[in-house]
């Protein structure tokens, strides 16, 4: 026997309840420690339901459906993500944002850190990304055919406060 899918239980925002596929009401019972609101059915209704085998196998004939307290916000984000403008932006993530992290992991040894502790790892990551930004700047200026500007202006400026021992 196949159980009902979670999306077949519909949340009614106005009454703060969930409707099962047989159009019975599951009322709010409690919020657990993990931030999920629990909606429970009435056992005397589920006991006589023709779809009970697809819904629950509990001895008490009670169905419990959970919904996270931030689920409303997640639905708004998902709706926003599927708009035509944001689909174009979302498709570019693999070329821009995710590409930086992929390069950092593959080409610059950022899969693992040789340091322990938040302060040391933070310094190490900042140094790595500063080097990546310098590399990106050099490539950008090279495309503009101004490498001499980079070497005469940016490198002395960026290295002015570095102390070499």
Instruction: Summarize the main sheet.
Output: 5 strands, antiparallel
Percent strand equals 5-15%
Indicate the structural class.
Answer: alpha+beta
Strand and helix order: EEEEHHEHHHHH
Shape descriptor: elongated
Helicity range of the residues? Answer: 40-55%
- The tally of domains stands at 2
What would your notes on this structure say?
There is one protein chain. The protein has 165 residues and is of the alpha+beta class. It has two domains: 71 residues, no CATH class; 46 residues. It contains seven helices and five strands; from the N terminus they run E-E-E-E-H-H-E-H-H-H-H-H. The chain has a five-stranded antiparallel β-sheet, with no helix packed on it. A hairpin with a 5-residue loop joins strand 2 and strand 3. The radius of gyration is 28 Å and the shape is elongated. 5% of the residues are buried. The model has no long low-confidence stretch (mean pLDDT 86).
Show the helix and strand layout.
Blueprint: E1 10-12, E2 17-19, E3 25-31, E4 36-40, H1 43-46, H2 52-55, E5 64-68, H3 71-81, H4 84-91, H5 97-107, H6 118-143, H7 147-158
Antiparallel strand pairs: 1-2, 2-3, 3-4, 4-5
Observed structural traits:
165 residues; 14% strand; elongated
